Amino acid sequence: xxxxxxxxxxxxxxxxxxxxxxxxxxxxxxxxxxxxxxxxxxxxxxxxxxxxxxxxxxxxxxxxxxxxxxxxxxxxxxxxxxxxxxxxxxxxxxxxxxxxxxxxxxxxxxxxxxxxxxxxxxxxxxxxxxxxxxxxxxxxxxxxxxxxxxxxxxxxxxxxxxxxxxxxxxxxxxxxxxxxxxxxxxxxxxxxxxxxxxxxxxxxxxxxxxxxxxxxxxxxxxxxxxxxxxxxxxxxxxxxxxxxxxxxxxxxxxxxxxxxxxxxxxxxxxxxxxxxxxxxxxxxxxxxxxxxxxxxxxxxxxxxxxxxxxxxxxxxxxxxxxxxxxxxxxxxxxxxxxxxxxxxxxxxxxxxxxxxxxxxxxxxxxxxxxxxxxxxxxxxxxxxxxxxxxxxxxxxxxxxxxxxxxxxxxxxxxxxxxxxxxxxxxxxxxxxxxxxxxxxxxxxxxxxxxxxxxxxxxxxxxxxxxxxxxxxxxxxxx
Length: 478
Ligand SMILES: Cc1cc2nc3c(=O)[nH]c(=O)nc-3n(C[C@H](O)[C@H](O)[C@H](O)COP(=O)(O)OP(=O)(O)OC[C@H]3O[C@@H](n4cnc5c(N)ncnc54)[C@H](O)[C@@H]3O)c2cc1C
Known about the structure:
This protein folds into 3 domains: 1-129, HUPs (Rossmann fold, 3-Layer(aba) Sandwich); 131-166 and 215-303, Serine Threonine Protein Phosphatase 5, Tetratricopeptide repeat (Alpha Horseshoe), CATH 1.25.40.80; 314-477, Orthogonal Bundle (DNA Cyclobutane Dipyrimidine Photolyase, subunit A, domain 3). The protein has 23 helices and 5 strands. It has helices at 20-28, 49-68, 80-90, 104-119, 149-163, 180-183, 186-189, 191-200, 216-228, 235-238, 251-256, 261-267, 278-303, 325-333, 339-351, 356-369, 374-384, 390-401, 415-422, 427-432, 441-446, 452-455, 464-477; strands at residues 6-9, 32-39, 73-78, 95-99, 123-127. Helices cover 51% and strands 6% of the residues. Strand 4, helix 4 and strand 5 (123-127) form a beta-alpha-beta unit. The mean pLDDT is 94. The radius of gyration is 24 Å and the shape is globular. Flavin-adenine dinucleotide binds next to helix 11, helix 13, helix 16 and helix 18.
């Protein structure tokens, strides 16, 4: 078969550079047509306004890139189980290529599609792309999936060291488009209007201030800023200060695959010669550790799909959550009267992103002070975060709730101690809670704000010490 037509399906890999399945497809033929489907059954991709914005704009850039390389991106909406076979047939594809997923819904969906395509004699070729190491390629000593981060980190790091510096993709793509008469086909040419309608319906007001930026070009820039401007060398301490731009802001790029995880990992190698202090070395390692947290949660969800539905530690099913909806609303709107919590929730609601330290603080507060189920918080995050990702979000919430794989039995953050440590001059708090701009830092940090009515800021809805004792008593019962 000479240069067979291929359908390439983009999913969490919205890029052309270093795309494992695309490289494989191109080695077989350059007659490639690509597609992206706004999957009506997989709302995770766009059920938050911020993610719809990130996705829509990334797709627009991706479509232009395909056009410049001689082919096209066909954007459809609906059910991929119907659309992929139909599209493959329309363009007379002999092969369909895609990169594998780890989420339960996607795995089941892909199985169905593979079955249908097999019946039509169309071959599916899958690759791993979204992870540093394939989940079936890393097991503990007794041949079981890892359930604790520490040993997983060591094993994965040793594998990465063995691989050494990743040899980046030097493939120069040039594609061959479909025949002219097919270009008029309804299935193909409705694509522009699908994207136009999608972009028109985006209701995200934080596009100018969201620190994550859509598209392949912007992801490259974010990575360059983080490495070339030497932010990575001070990451170890700067990453905990929410008022300081000390992190990479690559989370949404990695979630949608507008940049390859191998490229990001590769950028952390060979930096040691520029290190001037122990802090510099430590910082590079700490950032690698974060990338491996991402990897860990993805592997966990792949091996334990039940995590999506409930706690890893089953005793948490018995926990008597109070789920006071009024309190939940206050938390959600950034109106709890606890300054660091309110600042963080307002940052989330306005920009679609929240600093990691603050994600841990607000999660602990919701679960352990307000005694609301972590699943309510998980849902709110998925409805708002630009980087909302099932594995990372579920992992973060289960870690904060102590229901996950973290071996520490109970972790409770005191929001005031956290603010004293990580926002000592209240820069972050005051920028997101302007009602407090004239209040002294010590009043804010000690939770003793006087003249509340005058400054229009509410009293704390709960007392941390009281709630902590209550939470512990409930926990003792399970
Ligand atoms: C309750 C809670 C919910 C979270 N939900 C998400 C989510 O939906 N999507 C998401 O990508 N991250 C999530 N995180 C992890 C983390 O907060 C973000 O990845 C990070 O803040 C993104 O900012 P950055 O890109 O500047 O990260 P950097 O500090 O520059 O880190 C580099 C990359 O490492 C990964 N990473 C860093 N920390 C973590 C972590 N703790 N867990 C998993 N991956 C990590 C991300 O891909 C990130 O882009 C959550 C954390 C918590 C505590």
